[in-house]
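Notes, Module 5: Reading structure tokens.

Key idea: the token line is not a picture. It is a compressed description, and you learn to read it the same way you learned to read a sequence, by spotting repeated patterns. We will look at two proteins. The first is printed below with its tokens.
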Amino acid sequence: MDKRIFLAIILSVGVIALTQVIFPPVQPPAGADSTLVAPGSPADPASTAASTTTQQPASPEQPLGVPSSVSGDPAAADSQLSIPVVRAETSVVDTPVSTWTMSSLGAAPVAVEMDAFRSLRNGARATDQPPVQIVRQGEPLLTYAVAVPGDTVDFARVPFSVRESAGADGSPVIEYSAVREGITLAIRYAFVPDSYLVRVSTSASGAPARSFLLVGLPRGLASAESDTLGDQQHLAYAYKPRANGASSIGFGKLDPGERRLVNGPHSWVAAKSKYFIVGLLTPDDGEPFAEFSMVGGPREVGSERATNASGTALMSLSGDGANFELYAGPQEWRRMVALGRDFKDSNPYGGFMQPIVQPFATIVMNVLLWMRGTMNISYGWVLVIFGVLVRLVMWPLNQKAMRAQLRMQRIQPELQAAQKKYAKDPQKQQQEIMRVYKEHGMSPFSTLSGCLPMLLPMPIFFALFFVFQNTIEFRGVPFLWLEDISLKDPYYILPLLMGATTFLVSWIGMRGMKEVPQQQKMIMYVIPVTFTFVLLNMAAGLNLYYAVQNLAALPQQWLIARERRKAAGVTVKG
């Protein structure tokens, strides 16, 4: 193989190895206002949340957005006001896919249990484990506040009256109302059958003009994974401006107390872990979120892990109030796609390579899901078949590329002779080189055009690399000796097999060459070791796919090596 191919592969491996290190913090899209607010400054939530009498009403010239007294966290608002301790009234709503526990204190969901997904903690079998809980115990899923000119009225700890009923289709409906400081906040939850979706309608009677609803997202999500640390590292807030693509900011990217404010309009905002998500989605033809603010929370003592933050979405209360849809459930591809509004992009795959990786990730997910549904086999076997199919589809292009390399190797002696003969006459040397290319029906670009088809599977490999990081379809899927193909192989069998087959592909590919440069021989050993090291602790399914790719490539490599030896006049047996 041409050394430029090896260089391209080495660079690709380098990108994979450094992905988690070199990803820069995600910047807000063009046109968004990303502001860092230092604690104690006039814009800091801590210095404005408790102020209820000294703030001046917003002037007519004040731009649409958070009034000067609005906190980035509804739960922090009105901290100086005393609220009597009351007993919360609890309502439990069973749907075909989840169980919701609602509290009249704050009119918020305080538990969401998903029956189809079991905890994988403590290494026990999923069937022996309890259902996954999205919300951490003792923490609400949402918090509410109303921002009025010069003040923020917090409803997070206010007791609401509750009324339970049924919608026109018989689905459960829960309505809450409470009065505070002359404002009556009404919140209605309509549970969509056979879905993780809830339609939320709010109104604030008595609120002055230019009032806003503040909806606080969870400060973090509960972890139900065997790799708790890996799950926590995926904690992030995401948002989708209507005019731009989705963005995601990990909790670890927010310093404690640091505030980021992203102006809208936003189609949706979300808090997510590795596999589960809590999203607030606005109707396409409805009022969008005017802005989204995030504040970094304290780090865990000793580990410095970022497991807490606060995210707040702001929506105008003008007209009929503020309405949105609440999705609290798994990041299942088809469900996310069905919700529309590019909600499937809440996991922006690829980091700085997103424009290239995201389309391939979409194609790969659609193909894998189709194969799984059509063949009714485990995702492990789906990956095996998918790896073989990719090689078969690429066979003609790879064959063309390999033969182009053979032709290039045949004319190398003539090219080197021309370079040596006319070393002192560059113009004559160039003419002679072009003559050699023309006689053999080639051009200086033949090598490059021949190498490109061999690199085409790389975008699929990159897509799978990112897809395996948080695709719930692979979560807890066993295969052969593996208990979970989304986790690393505990015995390192697949990474070692992948490395060995990578070496075998290179070794067979060099058979029949009259002279193999020392540099190329060294690369033959470096690439397998590098790949093995990089993928050692990656998802077992990713190693499985790449090992299958290598095994499927061996017949073609053997055939081309046989063809090379025939062209060199070497007797070939078998």
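Here is the second protein, with the sequence above and the tokens below, as before.
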Amino acid sequence: MLLRAAFDSQTYTRSKPLPACALPARNAGAPILAAIIGLSIALLTSCGNSTPTLTPTQDFTLSITPAQVTATLGTASPDVTISVQPKNGFTGSVAVTISGLPAGLSIQPASPYTIAAGGSQSFSFLVPASSSLGTFSVQAAAAGSSISHSKAIQLTVNPAIAPIITTSNDGTNFFLQTQTSMETVRLGLLQAWGAAITEVSLNGVDYVNNDDPGRQIQTSLWDANANYSTSWGYNPIESGDHFYDGSPVLDSAFLPDSSIYTKTQPIQWAPENFGGGPGNPVLGDAYIEKWISVVPGYNRVFKVHYKITHFGNDLHANAFQEAPVMYVNESVPNFFYYGGSAPWTYGALSQHVMPHDCCDMLGTPENWGAYVDSNKTGIAVYTPQQFPNSKGFDAYSTLQFTPMCPYTWEPGSVLEFDTYILVGPVDQSRTAIYFLHSQQTTASTLPPMGSADTPSTGDIVSGIVPVDGWAYALPGMSNVAVFVDGSQVGTATYGLSRPDIPNAFPGAPSNTGYDYGLDTTQFSNGSHTIVVKATDNNGHVATYATQTVTFSN
């Protein structure tokens, strides 16, 4: 008992053997009790001039701050910080794993964490709208080389506050608003500017830029056959033109499910190139319809379903459409997205500084991007069917974000898609995006992105001329067909190496090249058109820009 009492306060290890004089003599006639007593006395007193040295075992302590945390459905919890403090000279690192999460919950960043002695790691619980309610005990287990400790974290999941959803019309704007005792979120559509989305605000802070009708959150149409460098070509804009004339709203309605419907005929951005001018807008050959609603369980998330109908009889070649584009105010200059190689795993977010010249192309495999303030609160756009690339730039007075959505406007073609607009802290927006992603069941309706590189308009060619370029489809490629003067002449070889494509579009495959040897001697000399059509495995067709060349044999 004396020994135990003396060393109860710490754990020790013996650094060297006990001196020989402290050991009981091996005398067959000595009682065992005397040996035990002798050993005890030896340890409690000096033995000649030799004293045993005992060293405390290295260890660490684990602390959790706070140990109790609360979150509501559809949000992220406040940060929880795990700290490792060394004890008795501990200098190593420990691996910390979080376990016992309720079904559907996750943490960001994901564990395990490696924490050095004296260090810490923060994380938050991401609670989807479908999570169970109640109080749960989550375990944080830390393991060193031969030491382990664990602590419990009490997580309480409360129901989301049911918002009051209202629609209204003040004669200038249509509004869709959600309101709780804690906050007001509002989306506004300016009627004079084609009912484009001109406001998305949280507690009165509006994130959408409206300096001219080419901004906002809206859609617009593009054509790879058009010239945008010397004379601005085909570009019907949902809001209006650069003379500040607005696109007309043909129809609108407040629907019984508290959603808003609008139908707009966009006008050409540069009407002077189509016979118009200031006060004389030129209507485009399309209708833009949208249905806007609040996502159940997420009062900060608006779903926008678009339907764009091209009723023209002409063709506008495959180009990146603004479907949609988002312009934001300078108050949210920090751009965040996921740019890693393991999407949908709550990997660490990337931050990017947008250039002042258009545009930086980013790999965005989770199909969203967010502009936020210094508190990481702002606005995000998630477009499920986009290609995993996005672009943006900083125009000083506004910042832009566009998901990559290629499309060909064939006569009578219709493009339908969803996009989601989210406001609030970026981590909570990401939680909602993960839930929305889990609900996606339909494949993208977008055709392959790509281009026809050679020959180019104006070339004079003869003999066997290579027709080459690249094509890339989300569901994989079916074939690449070559047409001369409207008639198919052959099918290109596909899958050639194009290492420049993933450099231009991060995350894209490199085996996207195609090539076809066109025998120009089979045609008369003179001007001819060459068109390439790329078809993906879901039957979606991209018609690339027409090349007008001269055959001279």
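Summary for the second protein:
- Confidence is low (pLDDT under 50) at residues 1-48.
- The CA atoms of residues 468 and 515 lie 4 Å apart.
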